[in-house]
Amino acid sequence: METVKTDKREFIKYSTLGVLGLVLGGGMIFSPYTLRAENRLRPPGAVDEKRFLALCIKCGQCLQVCPYHSIKLADFGRGHGVGTPYIDANERGCWACSAVPCVLACPSGALDHHCEKPEDIKMGIAVLEFPDTCLAMTNTPVPKGYNEKMHKFTNSVVNKHELEEQLLEKFDQYEGKQCTLCADMCPIPNPLSAIAMVPDSGGGNKPEIYDGCIGCGACQEVCPTTIPSIVIKPRMTYEEYYANKS
């Protein structure tokens, strides 16, 4: 009788280990990103990535106070920072709120409370990644329907904030005009310290990035090309990127 009990315990033990192994193995097969961090665009005030992942308690407070619905939480297939906040600038960039409410809401220090105003934000740096598709450089007017993406996003959110409505009203005014969206929609108090349209040798204008750029991703969001011509390099400084280009 004792032998039967022992065999049963051994069966349960190894069966459990086998099931656990299959679960873990399945996770590795179906979600390979769970084992590595991604270079995501983090909310304003985010400390360096390793500290951020250690400090963030995944409470979602930053998401809840963002009036532009810019912040998302990483899901299971988005790296090992599951539940941590990030911004997808293809959908909605950060619009640099004057009081930086997401930072104020963070209880853990993952978002540094020394970030008190838009000029303190250092999320990354804007880069004209695809100059060949830039409408300003090719003197192509902003096409009809360019604003469908922003309308779709804004209309999809629950409890739209009046700031989102104001943003949409401003954005809707550019159809048929020469494209200056990335420069005109820059949300920081002194946008000319971050980006400006300058004459290009090809006869058009091109966005030029300066060291005042905070990497908020607003320019990437509003770029009217199918794949944004201008993008944000997360956690990269102006000096790090543009020093190598001079």
Question: Can you describe this structure?
Answer:
This is 4Fe-4S dicluster domain-containing protein. Keywords: Iron, Iron-sulfur, Membrane, Metal-binding, Transmembrane, Transmembrane helix. The protein has a domain at 120-242. Helices cover 32% and strands 11% of the residues. The protein has 9 helices and 6 strands. The chain has helices at residues 2-30, 49-55, 61-65, 101-105, 148-156, 162-171, 181-184, 218-222, 238-242, and strands spanning 71-73, 85-87, 124-128, 195-199, 205-209, 230-234. Strand 4 (195-199) and strand 5 form a beta hairpin. The N and C termini lie far apart (81 Å). Residues 1-6 and 11-35 have low confidence and may be disordered.
Quick rundown:
Residues 43-76, 83-116, 205-233 form the 4Fe-4S ferredoxin-type domain. This protein has 246 residues and is of the alpha+beta class.
Number of helices: 9
How many whole angstroms does the radius of gyration measure?
23 Å
- N- to C-terminal separation? 81 Å
**Oligomeric form:** single chain
Count the E strands: 6
**Residues in helices, as a percent range:** 25-40%
Question: Beta fraction of the residues?
Answer: 5-15%
Layout of helices and strands, plus pairs?
Layout: H1 2-30, H2 49-55, H3 61-65, E1 71-73, E2 85-87, H4 101-105, E3 124-128, H5 148-156, H6 162-171, H7 181-184, E4 195-199, E5 205-209, H8 218-222, E6 230-234, H9 238-242
Antiparallel strand pairs: 1-2, 3-6, 4-5
Q: Any key phrases for this structure?
A:
246 residues, alpha+beta, two-stranded antiparallel sheet, 6 strands, 11% strand, disordered N terminus
